[in-house]
Amino acid sequence: MSSHVRPVSCSHCIASPSAAEPAEGGVAAAAAAAAAAAAPAAASRSAGANVGVAAETAAAAVEYVAADADADGDADLAAESLPVVMAEAAATTLDTDVITAEFGTSGEDEKDRACRVMRHVIGAPVSQDVCVFFEEDEAFDNVEVYGDHSASHFFLLRRSAELWNSELLALPVSSSDHTHGAGEHGQPSVVLPHDPNVKLQSVTAFKRHVAVFERVKGLQRIRCIPLRSNGSPASEDAKLVEFNEAAFEISPLRSQFESPLLRFSFSSLVTPTTVMERDMDTDRQAARKVDWVGPSFDPSLYSSRRLFATAADGTQVPISLVHRTATPSDPPPAAASNGPPWPMLLYAYGAYEVPTRLSFSSDRLSLLDRGVRWRLRT
User: Fold this and answer.
1) Which pTM does this prediction carry?
2) Whether pLDDT at 17 is above 50
3) What one-character-per-residue DSSP string does 152-195 give?
4) Average pLDDT over the chain, rounded to whole?
């Protein structure tokens, strides 16, 4: 199904009433029928339960549309009709306090670009949807924005052609209520400026901290930034979390917003995937779960190193090496005897900013145990 979704047709700020009228026949009619069929049962539920019912009803309508679109090859019609059906399904089943949702629109100009962010109040007519932001710059698609929010601030990673490694911005939540900009309550502030040598990968906001996952020279690290009492970031008190292994991979895991505990996975060329937990208040860190490899696996029998090779243009290319640690039963290296050199397997992949993951692999052990050196170029 097409990913380009047009919830409503609007003129900058207010939706057109005609947008709520689904086209007759085909996908739109099937979706409307699905929503109407689910409405009577939902309407008989209590107001408190209707929140979940509305979501289930809308989801059923969405699935109905998607299935019919796949069968008929009418993805474009499905994409345009789907949000209207969701809004109508919610309106017929929800009778509770106001719940707002913001979502983007597309196909609004000749370039078919997503240029508006709309706010829909569940249970209200689609004609009352409000445009909370309109992007007039036709080149804005070249800017990527990703983020998370704490109780009082949005934390946004913004990337563009000029900011290819991204910058981290903080925007007060109150500013988002303004219709066409950062708002009268304040402009976004730069928490971490763009650094050509440091790539900002992701940001996770907590009640009292912000955790930023970064990559430097191919290796990752975590920057923990405490928040002041007013929710603004205290960048000057940020702490870098680094690791003592030569080559590794880390990824954020689901953490509790209220808690200072940051959960993430850690894996290296010699360490199986491990669930780690770090207390951002005390800087204490502990392993909570380690993947089981086998009864005979001993990580102390393996070593990893990190090297750099100079490319033809002078670029320093990182190479990570893992091998079995020499033991009395291992064959001697070529430097200690006149025998053949260690066998080596060089693996390399990197494109679309997707590097080779420096993570553990049990499949690699049989080669390492036979004296093969494994090198990964990242």
Assistant:
1) 0.63
2) no
3) SEEEEEEE-SS-TT-EEEEEEGGGGGSSSSS-TT---EEEE--B
4) 73
Burial class (CB in 10 A: 0-12, 13-18, 19+), 177: exposed
All residues at 6 or more sequence positions from 55 whose CB lies less than 8 Å from its CB, including other chains: 90
Phi, psi for residue 331 in degrees, rounded to 5: -65, 145
Encoding tokens for residue 144?
């990527």
**The pLDDT of residue 141:** 66
| Location of structure tokens 């390399």 | 348
The DSSP symbol for 125 reads -
SS3 call for 234? coil
Helix/strand number for the chain, H first, E second: 4, 23
Per-residue pLDDT, averaged over 261-273, amounts to 97
Q: Kind of pairing, strands 344-348 and 373-377?
A: parallel
Residue 149: which residues within 8 A CB-CB, separation 6 or more? 155, 173, 205
Quick check: helix, strand or coil at residue 91?
A: helix
The C-alpha atoms of residue 44 and residue 36 are separated, in whole angstroms, by 14
Mutual angle of helices 26-43 and 50-72, in 10-degree steps: 160
Q: How far apart are the first and last CA of the chain?
A: 35
Report the alpha-carbon distance of residue 312 to residue 80 in Å, rounded: 51
How far apart (Å, rounded) are the C-alpha atoms in residues 183 and 149?
A: 17
Calculate the CA 155 to chain-centre distance.
Answer: 13
- pLDDT level of residue 219 (50, 70, 90 thresholds): very high
Tokens 């991204």 found at: 166
What three-state secondary structure class fits 51?
helix
pLDDT of residue 91: 36
DSSP 8-state secondary structure symbol assigned to residue 46: -
3-state secondary structure 303-361: EEEEEEEECCCCCEEEEEEEEECCCCCCCCCCCCCCCCCCCEEEEECEECCEECCCCCC
Q: What is the pLDDT of residues 33-75, one digit of tens each?
A: 444 444 444 343 333 333 333 344 334 333 433 443 444 444 4
**Residues in Cβ contact with 192 at an 8 Å cutoff, skipping those fewer than 6 apart:** 167, 168, 200, 212, 223, 235
Answer yes or no: are the C-beta atoms of 135 and 151 closer than 8 Å. no
